Amino acid sequence: MTDSPSLSVRHKRLIGILILLLILIGIGYLLARNPPSAPLPQRSAWSQPTPVRVVPVQRGSLDVQIRSIGTVTPLNAVTVRSRVDGELTRVLFTEGAEVEQGTLLAEIDPAPYRAQLAQAEGLAQQNQAQLANAQADLELYEGLYEQDSIARQQLTSQRALVEELRGTLKANAAQVEDARLQLSWTRIEAPIAGKLGLRRVDAGNLVSSSDTEGLVSITQMRPIAVEFTVPEPDVPALRRAVSSGEALAVQALDRNEQQVLARGQLHTMDNQIDIATGTLRVKALFENGDDELFPNQFVNVRLRLQTLPSVITIPSDAVQFGSRGTYVYVINAEESKAYTRLVKLGATADGRVAVTEGLEEQELVVLEGLDRLRDGREVVITDGAAG
Where are any strands of DSSP class E within 14-163? Predict the structure, then answer.
């Protein structure tokens, strides 16, 4: 009897599987006897020491300040207008000049107002003569009445005439004073001392008391004010500083905060907080002797509330914020490693912040290289870092 074809195929498959297993076993044996050389471990960039720049913790004074943006505002600004109507005959000022109070600036033709004054004085003189005549008649009537030579009604009428003329004379005196005042207003004088603006009307034009544009403007330059705002959270500290009775120093700086333009003092505060902006309006005064401040100029303002005499300070950029609170990286010099240290902060001024708890003087804190640090990370201090 012969084997069936199906059994022959099955035997061939079994033989092939056995051969494959023997080959795999042999390869495994060879690898076990001669293992391949392992590659040398390489250190990743994140495991290498991190270069950092550090600064020492310092002890010193710190000015507690409020910073804001302010606008230079004159204490007084006046638009000079004519009080009477007429022809502007003379303009006596120079544009942009400094003037004192009472300086003659311009003149209006006085002829019509001199005529009005003469007319009022003539009318008053006429009524004065009538009054004198009426008073003489009254004295005569009183004597005749005592002699029972005239009726009482005639005496009463004469007394009434005298009183009427006295009242008329008072009205005449008022008219004379008004005419004299109108005449004086033809001389336009500076109501305040300050700096003149540009001339708005030339000589020869008719001017009126109803002209809103006026002849020229005068702005007081010395002293001058700066108005700025203080955020509501800083208002309690400001009020405490004001209540201490000490003069609070204020600095006005240029737009880039590089140059101090003027130094002054806090003058006053508004009586309420603006609910729309959540700020309090504040005004400071500056002598402005060199005219560094100009009306409507924008300036940066620094208001010093107090000076802390001896506090631990570090740069504000060294402070980090995490879930546990504020912290800094402190360098352990022996291990050359950086460790986190929780700190409590105080006042901030000029890029430095006071540290009330957590640091000691002359400890080194990391200022640059913070983005790659973690607690216990090995560091390399760059040249010239500590300073």
Answer: 50-56, 58-74, 77-80, 86-91, 98-99, 104-108
Q: How confident is the model at residue 27 (pLDDT cuts 50, 70, 90)?
A: confident
DSSP state of 184: H
Of 53, 58, 42, 59, the C-alpha closest to 338 is 53
CATH of the domain at 288: 2.40.30.170
DSSP state of 8: H
CA distance 316 to 367: 9
Q: What pLDDT sits at residue 47?
A: 67
114, amino acid identity:
R
Range of the domain at 92: 76-107+192-219
Q: What is the CATH number of the domain that holds 96?
A: 2.40.50.100
Summarize the confidence of residues 341-364 as an average pLDDT. Answer: 90
Structure tokens at 125: 């003189």
Helix boundaries (H) for 224-332: 235-243
Instruction: Return the axis-axis angle of helices 152-184 and 111-146, rounded to nearest 10°.
Output: 160
Q: Is residue 8 part of a domain?
A: no
Residue 34 in domain:
no
Tell me: do 97 and 206 sit in the same domain.
yes
Residues 150 and 280 in one domain: no
Q: Which pLDDT does position 312 carry in this prediction?
A: 94
Confidence at residue 1, expressed as pLDDT on a 0 to 100 scale = 44
Give the residue from 59, 51, 53 showing the smallest Cα distance to 314.
Answer: 59
pTM, entire model: 0.69
CATH of the domain at 323: 2.40.420.20
What is the spatial distance between Cα 27 and Cα 21, in angstroms, rounded to a whole number?
A: 10
List the single range of 140-144, 226-230, 285-289 with lowest mean pLDDT: 140-144
Task: Count other C-beta atoms under 10 Å from residue 79's C-beta.
Answer: 15
Gap between the Cα atoms of 197 and 77, Å rounded: 11
Mean pLDDT of 102-126: 97
Local structure of 310: helix, strand or coil = strand
Task: Specify whether the CB–CB gap between 369 and 52 falls below 8 A.
Answer: yes
- Residue 385's pLDDT band, with cuts at 50, 70 and 90, is very low
